[in-house]
Amino acid sequence: MSHATAPGRATVFGFGAHSTIDEGPRLLDMARRADSDGLDLFSLSDHPYIGGRLDAYASIGFILGQTQHIAGVANVTNLPTRPAPVLARIETRAGHGAGRPTSKIIEEAADQFAFLVRNLHMKLPPVKAN
Question: Does 128 map to a domain?
Answer without folding.
Answer: no
